[in-house]
Each structure stands twice: as structure tokens, then as C-alpha cells.
Amino acid sequence: MKTLLSALLIVSVMTGCIRDKCCPGWENWFADGKLDNFQIVSGTASYKVENGVLVGTTVEGSPNTFLATKTPCKDFELQFEVNVDDQLNSGVQVRSHVAKEGDPVPEGSKSGKPLPAGRVFGPQCEIAINGTAGDFYDEARRGTWWSILTKTEAVRTDAAKAAFKKGEWNQYRIVVKGDHYQSWINGVPTADFSQPHDPEGIIGFQVHGIKKGTGPFSVRWRNVKFRAL
Q1: Of 63, 134, 167, 213, which sits with the fewest C-beta atoms within 10 Å of its C-beta?
Q2: Is residue 177 scored above 60 in pLDDT?
Q3: What is the pLDDT of residues 104-144, one digit of tens each?
């Protein structure tokens, strides 16, 4: 048994995740300061872990960048706290995809054209100070909000739009199970819809591209916890 537990601990460290002894089934992402189980895709923004906090920082001239899981996820719950510079918006991709050379045009694509190789696309839970936080945007594909696409805008109440607190750490909870997507910010429901087009995919932490002559700006995530459902 001791040998087995030691082996499991080694695997957790190698994958950049630490099992939470207090809450079985949960993984504490970035708690060990490593990014071994993640890859930077779509852009050249920088990512590092400082005292358990994942910090993503813009690079002028870079498009949207994502620190993405190397393996896809299906049904899961993701919790984290996030703090973003006022000048920057961000998001977390869920069940999203990375385009490959020769891929067909993504289903529902707004442009009707194939995406360049390496481009991330799919549902993204928004991080922003402008009232859209917690809604899901269809990144690089349909180019609109899933609340609009699924006619679930009723969940975008005044309380939902005001849930994200400017300049503060904000607690997110995201649950994706089957076709059902839900999010909460600081305990307030901010999205609740169903869509069958993405049965599994990567999770990715976004650093948005910035205008020339601006920045650098940063977004910070801490207490990032994941569990498969």
C-alpha cells in the first residue's frame, strides 16, 4: 500500500496536479508550481506560477493565448478565484479544441472559413469587468454568446451582471455535465444552458490579445480545483 501511495503521489506531481486529501476526487492545479500537464497555444503570452498563483501576462503583438490542458476533459467541476487587471478581459475555455492543419470549417463557424492550425475555439466562460462575466462566448467559432444561441438570456439578471467585483478576487464555479453548462460567480448563477456540440475538449486559461502600445497587463488565478464527474 505504501508503495502504491508513493507511486500515485509521483504521478500527481508529474502531471502538475496535487490530490486534495481533504476533498477526495479533487485536484489542486498549479499547487506544486508546475505546468507540466499544460501547453501554451494560439499566442505568445507568458504564464508562470508564483506561490500557487497562476499569472498570465500579455505580450504586445500576440493574439489570444491559452494555457491549455494536454488532454481533453468531459464531465467536470472547476473552481477557482481570479483577479484581472481592469484593462484586460480573459476567460476559461471548457470542452474546447485546437485546430489542426487540414481541419474542416468548424460547425457553426461565423466566418465560414477553416481556422489556422493551433487556434483554440469553443465555449469560454468570460472573465471581465463589463457585466459579461460568467456568460459563455463561443471563441473563434460562432462568435457570440451561448446565452443568446440557446435563448437562456433570462439567467443574465442584474445580479448576474454585477456578480464580478472589479479589482477583487472573484470566486468561479463551473459545472459541465452531459450537454448542460452552468457557472456561478461569488455564488450568483451566471449561466445555465444546454448544447450538444462539444462532448469533450480542453480546458484553457486565456490571456487576451491587446492593442499596440498598451500593456503589459495580467490575469491571476488561485485555488484552482478540478474534479471529474
Answers
A1: 213
A2: yes
A3: 999 999 999 999 999 999 999 999 999 999 999 999 999 99
Positive or negative: CA dihedral 12, 227, 171, 183: positive
Cα 50 from chain centroid?
A: 19
CATH code assigned at 117: 2.60.120.560
**Interatomic CA distance for residues 228 and 100, integer angstroms:** 26
pLDDT of residue 89: 95
The domain of 151 spans 2-228
Contact 96, 72 (CB under 8 A): no
Burial class (CB in 10 A: 0-12, 13-18, 19+), 92: buried
Averaged pLDDT of the chain = 93
Cα distance between residue 194 and residue 153, in whole Å: 12
Name every residue whose Cβ is closer than 8 Å to that of residue 211 and which is 6 or more positions away in sequence. none
Q: What is the secondary structure of 158-206 as a DSSP string?
A: HHHHT-SPTTS-EEEEEEEETTEEEEEETTEEEEEEE--S-SSBEEEEE
Number of neighbours of residue 153 by Cβ within 10 angstroms: 12
- Structural contact between residues 94 and 203, judged by C-beta atoms closer than 8 angstroms: yes
Based on the structure, what is the number of domains in the chain?
A: 1
